[in-house]
Design goal:
alpha+beta; Alpha-Beta Plaits; 2 domains; 9-stranded mixed sheet
Length: 182
């Protein structure tokens, strides 16, 4: 039976247990997780929040992280601007990035979700509107969601990974984790 941790990674935390080579002290997984023998199945950027899965089984870890298995990763995305259907349709078709065409995303405009407060908070500008999207992708390129929204003219302000496959961060506070057996 494999162990799987569902961790709600706070903003500013690295998706690794150590921070080598940085002249400044940055928060890592070891500041929150004292469980031995578990490793991240994939990554979540330092400036992104939400679900990070950690497990103690290499095959399960590879299955979660490898895009060949196409587990959907769903994000709640606060974007700068007022998302229009034409921009959402471009995301649904896939967009061209420097490293090639993305697979199509599932995307919908949503009302502002009830999330935890982010520290530091998102900068609000009275003259620039913002909106929220629910976006699911089935690949895992570096900073992919941010690059996709920027490519259609909607820069990402806040990015929260809500789920990976059937696993979700719902009910888990930032910096906390839930352990399950798989």
């Amino acid at each position: 039976m494999a162990r799987l941790l569902l961790f709600n990674k706070p903003y500013g935390v690295l998706s690794q247990f150590t921070d080598r080579g940085s002249p400044t002290v940055r928060s890592t997984l070891s500041d929150f997780i004292a469980v031995k023998g578990v490793y991240p199945a994939g990554r979540l950027d330092r400036d992104s929040e939400g679900l990070l899965l950690l497990c103690d089984d290499g095959r399960l870890q590879a299955r979660i992280a490898d895009p060949r298995f196409k587990l959907p990763k769903t994000y709640l995305v606060q974007v700068e601007g007022d998302p229009q259907e034409s921009e959402l349709e471009r995301l649904r078709q896939g967009v061209v990035l420097k490293d090639g065409m993305t697979r199509p995303a599932e995307v919908a405009r949503i009302d502002e979700p009830e999330l935890w407060l982010r520290d530091p908070p998102i900068r609000q500008r009275k003259s620039v509107p913002d909106g929220w999207l629910r976006m699911s992708i089935r690949e895992g390129r570096n900073r992919q969601v941010r690059r996709m929204t920027a490519a259609v003219g909607l820069p990402t302000l806040r990015l929260v990974r809500w789920s990976i496959g059937e696993w979700t961060v719902a009910g888990i506070a930032p910096g906390e984790y839930r352990e399950i057996s798989v």
